[in-house]
Amino acid sequence: MMILLGAIIFWLAMWAVNAWLAHRGSSRAIRIIVPIIFGITVVALWEWLVWGWDINPVLLPAPSAIYAAFIGNIPTLWADFLQTFVQGALTGYIIGCGAAFLTAVAIDRSPFLQRGLLPIGNFVAALPIVGIAPIMVMWFGFGWQSKAAVVVIMVYFPMLVNTVQGMKATDPMQRDLMRTYAASYPQRLMKLRLPAAAPFIFNGLKISTTLALIGAIVAEYFGSPIVGMGFRIQTELGRLNLDMVWAEIVVAAIAGTAFYGLVTLLERAATFWHPSQRG
After folding, report:
1. How many CB atoms lie within 10 A of CB 44?
2. What is the DSSP string of the chain?
3. Are 237 and 245 within 8 A, CB to CB?
4. Residue ranges per domain, the chain?
5. Phi/psi at 24 (5° precision)
């Protein structure tokens, strides 16, 4: 009871500190400090409750144990990261998003494709990944190719829908003005359609960052060489080595966050003129 009471008091104290900082302004330093304090508070409470209540490590390992597993297995975690993220997730992300972008341009050019292809895309997007992944493994083997194929299927439709929607973001008056200038379709596309669609395109790219990593990890459950995040999680879970499982989860979280942040930085650099990016 005392452990729980102490945890509640600590949580309320940190909440008060964060609330006080949040009301001090919206400077860059405060926007960084507030989430850091919140994260440290969650980790500290986690450690406190695990050790205070003597929770079985199989059920929930302490953050200190996860950190020790992370530091002690860096070569293994790095090899798993390269296999899952670089060869599977990133390759499938580039292929899937690139194909979706080209398809969106074709759909914008052809009303027939818009009526015929988008419903098929809705159908493909509704397919469960646990059903698609083993089929891709059977088709493309146990290497990174099958993981990339799963990622392509997962990121294709979100990117397609966002890009198609962005192509419609221009005003009729703007399109009429381009026709008045006798602009060709490539000129209208490069000077009007794509700049207007840029926020939507980057929205699709950001959504696809998380989907790509999830798809690659899940695909490794159904067949993988003896390396990869999904393979390692499945293997260590069978050995009840939850410290290593959580270490892999930490690597996936860091990779996904960094990937999302990189795309966000590219968005700010490419769409600095958009109202959403202006302070």
Report:
1. 15
2. -HHHHHHHHHHHHHHHHHHHHHTT---HHHHHHHHHHHHHHHHHHHHHHHHHTT--TTT---HHHHHHHHHHTHHHHHHHHIIIIIIIIIHHHHHHHHHHHHHHHHHHH-HHHHHHHHHHHHHHHTS-HHHHHHHHHHHH-SSHHHHHHHHHHHHHHHHHHHHHHHHT-S-HHHHHHHHHTT--HHHHIIIIIHHHHHHHHHHHHHHHHHHHHHHHHHHGGGS--S-SHHHHHHHHHHTT-HHHHHHHHHHHHHHHHHHHHHHHHHHHHHSTTSGGG--
3. yes
4. 2-54, 72-277
5. -85, -10
Per-residue pLDDT of the chain (279 residues; tens, 9 = 90+): 666 666 677 767 777 777 777 677 666 777 777 778 788 888 888 887 887 777 777 778 888 888 898 998 889 999 989 888 888 889 999 999 999 999 888 887 777 777 767 777 677 767 777 777 788 888 887 777 888 888 998 888 889 888 888 887 777 776 667 677 666 777 777 777 778 888 888 998 999 998 898 888 888 887 767 788 888 888 888 888 888 999 999 999 999 999 998 998 888 888 777 666 665
CA pair distance 277, 186, nearest whole angstrom: 27
- Residues constituting the chain: 279
CATH T-level topology, domain 72-277: MetI-like fold (1.10.3720)
Among left, alpha and beta (phi > 0; psi -120 to 50; other), residue 27 is: beta
Q: What sign results for the dihedral spanned by CA atoms 156, 159, 162, 165? A: negative
